[in-house]
Specification:
By secondary structure, the chain is mainly alpha-helical. It is built from 14 helices and no strands.
């Protein structure tokens, strides 16, 4: 893997800084702070277990994708997912992704290249599930919260996103079947691109194709779809439990919309821990349902803090079990070129 460019890091810092400045200038922080006084600790107790459940379904899905090229036990995948999430929370350049590959595969003697390939497939499935969740969220936005023209655009966009996700999943399964038609089709497309770009795209496509080796057959496709659905529901349940801890009842449609916007915000460069885009997503989601920005920001800060602490604690526990140090996570990028 290539060395990460610092440009994305600086852009992320700029976006985070811009959000902080906006919050200081436009939002009454005294009202935001008052929100913290409504915290109910009893609602916080289940959250680490729900978050561990999120890691469990993600690890299980990655294991299904990697069954022919990686460890057979579930623990290496769970540990890799937890440590990777921890790394992404505290380090720049998403170094947690490299740590995830190291913990799950290279540390145990498996091919790092193939593990990266399966991780690429797993990330693509994340994008497809995000498209599906976003489409559902757009359909559940209450009538009257936006103009009729905006509602129409969102619903049409929802249909488009859902159709795209289903079609892309079908293409993935077709590529996994090993049929020559997808290979020829993509080769024809690559032939239309400049030679320098064509070689890079061909390498990425081959890496993706190798990551699909383990999901041939209908049973694997059904299991992957089921695990993805469980992963989404577990994510939604996290927010449905987390929000009442700060005195805010969250309906299922609200939780779906919040999850969708948080997922979309993760595509935006930011500082470690996704500070800024995460909070903006929560404020936007609650704002659509009529919540004042001052209170919504307090909710966003608190929920992000809880998620951050859970991520760090679970990650450190897994680091200890794996017998690894934090410096190994920090230096994950040094081994990137060997993967």
């Amino acid at each position: 893997m290539k060395k990460r460019s610092p440009k994305a890091f600086y852009i992320g810092l700029l976006i985070t800084f811009a959000f902080i400045v906006y919050a200081l200038l436009k939002i009454d922080l005294s009202e935001t702070i008052k929100t913290f006084k409504t915290v109910n600790p009893l609602w916080l107790a289940p959250l680490p277990f729900i978050q561990a459940g999120m890691y469990f379904f993600r690890a299980w899905r990655w294991r299904v994708i990697s069954k022919e090229v990686g460890p057979q036990k579930l623990w290496p995948y769970f540990s890799g997912v937890a440590i990777g999430a921890f790394g992404n929370m505290v380090l720049p350049f998403r170094l947690g992704d490299l740590a995830r590959v190291y913990v799950t595969a290279k540390k145990r003697g498996y091919s790092g290249t193939l593990s990266v390939a399966t991780l690429v497939v797993e990330r693509v499935m994340d994008v497809l599930s995000l498209l599906a969740v976003s489409s559902l969220a757009f359909f559940t936005i209450p009538t009257g919260s936006l103009s009729s023209s905006a509602m129409l655009v969102l619903k049409q966009g929802g249909v488009l996103l859902l159709s795209t996700a289903i079609a892309a999943f079908g293409v993935m399964l077709f590529m996994a079947s090993g049929h020559e038609i997808p290979r020829r089709f993509f080769s024809s497309l690559l032939a239309l691109t400049p030679r320098s770009a064509s070689k890079t795209l061909e390498e990425k496509l081959e890496l993706f194709r190798r990551g699909l080796l383990s999901i041939r057959g209908g049973k694997s496709a059904i299991l992957l779809a089921a695990l993805t659905a469980m992963l989404i529901l577990t994510n939604v349940s996290f927010y449905q439990v987390a929000f009442p801890s700060i005195g805010l009842e969250l309906s299922f449609p609200m939780a779906v919309l919040t999850l969708a916007l948080i997922g979309l915000s993760g595509l935006i460069p930011s500082s470690p821990g996704f500070v800024g885009p995460y909070h903006a997503a929560v404020v936007l989601a609650l704002g659509i349902y009529g919540f004042p920005a001052d209170r919504a920001l307090g909710v966003a800060v608190f929920i992000h803090f809880v998620f951050y602490v859970n991520t760090v604690v679970i990650g450190l526990v897994c680091l200890n079990i794996e017998g690894m140090s934090f410096s190994q996570i920090k230096n994950a990028d040094s081994g990137a070129n060997s993967i």
